[in-house]
Design a protein that fits this description.
The protein contains 6 helices and 19 strands. It has 373 residues and is an alpha+beta fold. The model has no long low-confidence stretch (mean pLDDT 96).
Length: 373
């Protein structure tokens, strides 16, 4: 199978947004996979005169340094110094390199680098009527306890937003990368719940302003127990729309997890819908199709499509999809199913937040605006 480069664009008078999903040739060694994949991304960005807003790369532990070096060598002038999130997963059907995702912008205004504790950690894009912030790979590996790392990640992200007189109410989407997720996911939820309660994002009398989110068993190469990416919309001033319950599922806060099932925000090229990490879970919060990989995969996709439909999105509006499979066997089954959907899949193998869950996925969509190149 050759390199699969999926490019979705969203355009407005203000700017264009590009979503790239790339998976490598299966038969090549990691260095050759990375050379081909990053050259294709580089050429796409240069041709479209686009600049990176956020990037995620999914290697196995033993391939990460090779892939990191190849990316640096190939990107050259398009690399502004902000490291992508290199997220360690298990080796899957593409070998030690599962693929990459890039969100980029076409605009006369260049994103500026955001530093956290002196480290380039994100970007801010300012347009006449729009301001967008992305942060990537926020972590605190210097701390010993996982819960302390989680708290520090939230506080570091908040500190970065405060540079621009913003806070977590402006955050539309988070991704939380949790090494050994099954050993401490409940503890993580308690930390996040406390943080959001103290900022009045949740709690009695609040608007339940929780970002859409994914919490999944991937990790940075530095061994952090917790790391975070996010997208925040600072302008227009209206807050992102948070949907704690939408589609077939009720509010996750009912079983102790503080995230919205989806969010919707005004972004430079239009409106963006963020569908949280979703699994085979029913309206009561119970896992369904236990022990049945096909059943869980199909139920998860149905749950995601129900959210998309409620948010006014069609299948063709989807610009990014990420699939998380518990084992290689689950990935093999998923690979037979995913062809029924013309979505830009990037798939990896990792642990999910419940022992009995075998599959999870997330999606990003641009209602009635996305175009496939």
């Amino acid at each position: 199978m050759a390199l699969n480069l999926d490019i979705r664009t969203v355009e407005s008078a203000a700017a264009g947004e590009i979503y790239i999903s790339a998976t490598p040739q299966k038969t090549l060694p990691p260095q050759d996979q990375a050379n081909e994949l990053f050259a294709a991304i580089r050429d796409t960005l240069r041709t479209k005169k686009a600049r990176i807003l956020q990037e995620r790369i999914f290697p196995s532990q033993n391939a990460i340094e090779t892939i990191r070096q190849v990316r640096s060598k190939i990107y050259k002038d398009i690399d502004d110094g902000v490291s992508p999130s290199f997220l360690v997963c298990k080796e899957g059907s593409f070998g030690p390199f599962a693929g990459a995702q890039v969100h980029a912008i076409i605009s006369d205004n260049k994103p500026k680098v955001i530093h956290i504790e002196g480290v380039p950690s994100g970007r801010i894009l300012r347009l006449p009527d729009h301001t967008l912030v992305t942060l990537s790979a926020i972590s605190a590996p210097e701390l010993t306890q996982a819960t302390d790392q989680a708290k520090a990640c939230l506080e570091k992200a908040e500190s970065a937003l405060k540079q621009f007189n913003a806070g977590f109410l402006s955050v539309a989407r988070t991704w939380v990368w949790l090494r050994d997720i099954l050993t401490w996911y409940d503890d993580f939820n308690r930390v996040r719940n406390r943080f959001f309660t103290e900022r009045t994002l949740i709690g009695e009398g609040s608007r339940q302003s929780m970002p859409a989110s994914t919490g999944i068993g991937l990790s940075l190469a530095d061994g952090s127990r917790c790391a975070m990416d996010l997208i925040a919309v600072l302008e227009p001033k209206s807050l992102p729309q948070f949907l704690p319950a939408v589609g077939r599922q009720q509010c996750a806060l009912e079983y102790g997890s503080a995230f919205s099932r989806a969010s919707r925000a005004v972004t430079p090229a239009g409106r963006t819908v963020f569908v949280s990490g979703t699994a085979s879970i029913d309206a009561s919060g119970a896992t369904t199709n236990i022990g049945d990989p096909s059943g869980q995969i199909n139920a998860t996709i149905d749950n995601v499509r129900a959210v998309l439909a409620d948010m006014g999105c069609r299948d063709e509006d989807v610009v990014h999809t990420t699939a998380y499979c518990k084992t290689a066997e689950v990935e093999e089954i998923f690979n037979r199913i995913k062809g029924d959907f013309d979505w830009p899949w990037v798939t990896m193998i990792c642990d999910i937040c419940r022992p009995e869950l075998l599959f999870e996925m997330e999606a990003t969509a641009a209602p009635k605006s996305a175009k496939k190149n």
